[in-house]
Amino acid sequence: MNKMPNTYTLHGWHLSYYTGKVLCYLRYKGIDFDGPRASAWTLLHQIKRRFGAAVMPVLVTPQGEWIQDSGDIIDRLEQRYPQRSVTPNDAVVRFASCVMEAWGDEWWVPVAMHSRWSYPENYALFVKDAGTQLLPGMPGFLQRMAVGKVAGGLRAMLHNAGVRPVQFEALEQWTCNMLDKLDTHFAAQPYLFGDSPSLGDFGLVGTMYGHLGRDPWPAREWVGKRPHLRAWIDRMAQTRSAPQGDEPLITHRINATTLDPIFATLFAEFTSYVSQVNAQVQAALASSPPGQLLRRSLDDVQLHTPFGTIKRKALPFAVWKVQGVLAVFAAMGTQDQARVRTWAAPLGGEAFLNLDLACLQRSGLRVRAAS
Ligand SMILES: N[C@@H](CCC(=O)N[C@@H](CS)C(=O)NCC(=O)O)C(=O)O
């Protein structure tokens, strides 16, 4: 029988994209937790049995409940710990923050995978961290063997994720351009939407904490050259004590000067990606039996950027994620919706708001038609 934890346990690694997101969130909220850690046993037995994939992060609550998916984990904890809310009160900022979270979660994966796996100097940290996590206390040669298997699995995903040598230049130019925009923004204010982090910050820090901010090559070549971005990552990763009594109410805001260029790019590129994935999802649903889970990745889509077209496989999961963002918009009153439209339209966001997505439900890392 599993022992009941008396605090939260975060199963995951510092190396992992979505674990970084939840780790920063837990630290910001001042929620006590063990971890992050995830052994081969936890991943391949405890987690895979429950969620169908050896996935991280998974949070185990003091009541013994296992929660998978960074977004679900944060939603649940927000309900339980309303202080230091990461949900902006204002409808426009709340929507912008959700869009940022989805973009951070879904769009940046090729950047993170490229920076980690195309530069061999990152591998030593991966071997050290993953080895001690997978087989704690076991001999080094066994740890290295286990890491080799995991690394092989991740390398096998690179092509699907858009990490293809002919695209490296476009991918890097795109990244440097966007990191410059973020650096300019964080020179003007400490977080994406003002003086405190929001859900959007946690979405974006997924890429930035482990892959860009901690792996030696990108930490030096990309983040190290942008001090305001570096400072934001460090602020995001800071540990804080739990709130003592009532804290001042947080106000999030949009600084148009530095955020408009980011959202204009986001709406143009991300909307096109999601709409191409959606078209493939609709076609796949039409030809599969009701209730069947879709494959994790479908066929190539084309990401049109000013630096060239980048191809990657369509991940149906992205449609499910954006469906959640559009649900936030749909739940707003007409006045708030009108304000969101007024904000989004000049940034090219109308098409995003008008996306007509397949209705999906999630199961682990995969999706199926909602019943
Ligand atoms: N949408 C999930 C994604 C979790 C995820 O993809 N985690 C990666 C590590 S950062 C993973 O476990 N991948 C294993 C796999 O793709 O099979 C979340 O937000 O937590």
Strand content of the residues, in percent?
A: 5-15%
Secondary structure: helix percent: 40-55%
Low-confidence spans: pLDDT under 50, at least 5 residues? none
The small molecules bound here are: glutathione
Radius of gyration: 20 Å
Strand order of the largest sheet: 2-1-3-4
Q: Helix count, per DSSP?
A: 15
Secondary-structure map:
Layout (H helix, E strand, L loop, with lengths): L7 E4 L5 H13 L3 E5 L2 H12 L6 E3 L5 E3 L1 H11 L10 H16 L2 H9 L5 H12 L5 H16 L12 H21 L10 H14 L3 H8 L3 H10 L19 H31 L13 E6 L2 E6 L3 H14 L3 H11 L5 H4 L6 E4 L2 E4 L2
Parallel strand pairs: 1-2
Antiparallel strand pairs: 1-3, 3-4, 5-6, 7-8
Helix pairs in contact: 1-9, 4-9, 4-13, 5-9, 6-7, 8-11, 8-12
The chain binds glutathione (GSH).
Protein described:
The chain has 371 residues and is an alpha+beta fold. It has three domains: 8-80, Glutaredoxin, CATH 3.40.30; 91-113 and 163-238 and 250-369, no CATH class; 119-155, no CATH class. The chain contains 15 helices and eight strands. The strands form three sheets. Strands 2-1-3-4 form a four-stranded mixed β-sheet, sandwiched between helices. It has a two-stranded antiparallel sheet with strand order 5-6. A hairpin with a 2-residue loop joins β7 (360-363) and β8 (366-369). α4 (91-106) runs parallel beside α9, α4 packs antiparallel against α13 and α8 packs across α11. The chain is globular. The structure holds glutathione. Residues 16-18, 53, 55-57, 69-71, 105, 365 line the site of glutathione. The site of glutathione has 12 residues, from α1 and α3.
